[in-house]
Amino acid sequence: MTPFTLHLMRHGAVEGEGRLIGSSDVPSIPAGDALCLARAEGLAFTHLLSSDLIRARRPAGMLAAARGVTLTPDPAWRELDFGSWEGLAPAELPADAMAAFWADPDRSPPPGGERWSALVARVGAALDRIDRDTLVITHGGAIRAALAHLFGFSAGQCWALDLPYSALLSLRIWPGEPRSAQITGLLT
């Protein structure tokens, strides 16, 4: 099968930066949207996907209009659901609960929230549907889950990656069994 390029971009900065805003539909700030558009200049893609949350969907919609491509919002690309921790800063939570979550987000998910393995499975299924040059505007957790799915990285390895707002990760994917991938660029 023919290899293709996959670009994964984190949405732009949001109000309330530093809070756990996984499934909350919080918009990005205009400067964050502008940085996403600037980062996408020169990228070659024929398909544009985004999380269905506004902080990813809005800059993706602007880019779709500018490029004349169709945007497909997909809830599979949403951020990890932080349950009862949504909207809180890590410092507002019990230190032992946060430490347990960061050490093993599958065994110690946020109360009422999503397990790491569920995020990886959800994003992995979305990844497996991609078969052409694609840009996905999504969230930091979803990008990390994509890397876990493609490369077998542990949660700890994924959390160690610095993916600031508007970060862009480019991969070359070889479909088939087994599927293989290579990181070709990271812009932070």
Structure description:
The chain is α/β, with parallel strands linked by helices. It contains 6 helices and 6 strands; from the N terminus they run βαβαβααβααββ. The chain has helices spanning 30-40, 54-67, 95-103, 116-128, 140-151, 155-159, and strands at residues 4-10, 47-50, 71-73, 134-138, 168-174, 180-187.
Please indicate the percent range of residues in DSSP E strands (runs of 2 or more). Answer: 15-25%
Name the helix and strand elements from N-terminus to C-terminus, one letter apiece. EHEHEHHEHHEE
Radius of gyration: 16 Å
Mean pLDDT: 95
Shape: globular
Instruction: Determine the N-to-C terminus distance.
Output: 31 Å
Number of helical segments?
6
Low-pLDDT windows of residues: none
Helical percent range?
A: 25-40%
For the biggest β-sheet, the strand order reads 3-2-4-1-5-6
Main sheet attributes: strand count, strand direction, barrel closure: 6 strands, mixed
Number of DSSP strand runs: 6
Q: Quickly give the structural class.
A: alpha/beta
Overview features:
188 residues; single chain; 6 strands; alpha/beta
Brief sketch in words of this structure:
This protein is α/β, with parallel strands linked by helices. Helices cover 34% and strands 18% of the residues. β2 (47-50), α2 and β3 form a beta-alpha-beta unit.
